[in-house]
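worker-3 :: picked Sarcoglycan, alpha
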Amino acid sequence: EVNWLPWILLLGVSDLYGISAEIKFTTPVGRLFTYEVMREKFQNDFETSSKLYTGVLHDDPMVFKCKKQGFPDLPEWLRFIQRHPFDNGFLYGTPMSPGKYFIEIYAINKISYDAARELLVIKVIPEKLLPYQAEFFIQLREVEKVLPSSVQIEIKQDLQKLWNNEALEMINISNALDRGGRVPLPLAGHYEGVYVKVGSKKYFSKCLQRVMSPEYQRECATEAKVKIPGECTFCKIPSNCITWCKTELVRRPASQRFHHHCLEMTCVFIQLYHHQTIHGNTEELRSMASQRGVPAPLSTLPMFNSRTGERASPLQSDSIPLIMAQQEPYSDTLPR
Ligand SMILES: *[C@@H]1O[C@H](CO)[C@@H](O)[C@H](O)[C@H]1NC(C)=O
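worker-3 :: tokens ->
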């Protein structure tokens, strides 16, 4: 199930950097976005712009620089990796708020030093966050080996079995470096390891619920190598196997969850509870403000006149019209 809708806008505009194409994507908040930066495509751009190598297929080394248009870097949710000048690059990450992002990709040919540019327009649309999420660690992988969609699908298929749930969505893929960890030297047989986070509207399977059990905690705290229980082992390809003891379950707080997940009476209860919590917090802030030995900031008072500082008594507030601006043009009686 692919949940972003890519489409390519054919817009060949010549500029300083050779051919510049604009590519548009729409992707929902809270879901993994990936884009493979293809060397082959830029190779074509270089050949059309220089017209030097007609008739011969070239495979030049190239490096990429990706950044938000008008800024030195990428937006903080978006990361880029290209391991080697003969590899494709990947842009990947999880946007957490809606908006439109203009991402420039510059390619530099390491033989001719030709440069080409591509513009990615990523439109992030609102979407509800998934209430149940689980993060897995795959030890024998590098992030760029997991980002191609074919590999993402393989991994998701194993996790669908472990979760006993078809409706899983990719939320995040990151490597140890993305998480501020230390990474082994590039030695044969040593991998950085990859974290994969998926989410669903459906609750965790029996297999995943074991992660919350005291036995899991105890075993994983004491034993060096804990095997995933037999009936919960689903990896078809050894390099996709998860490290059982590094599994983490996340349940989003009820305030973000009750939309999908409770029956009417329970929802009312949760909403009331939240209302009370917010009310309580406000009270607390007001009393803290009043105890500082300085006049309380006007903004913490129920209603005030910003010019005179005069307060309306809370008892009267029911009878005060919300807008009084007609009588006093420069007064502000709206609660802040
Ligand atoms: C995805 O992973 C990166 C790296 O660990 C982290 O900084 C980011 O907050 C994560 N985003 C989500 C939505 O989990």
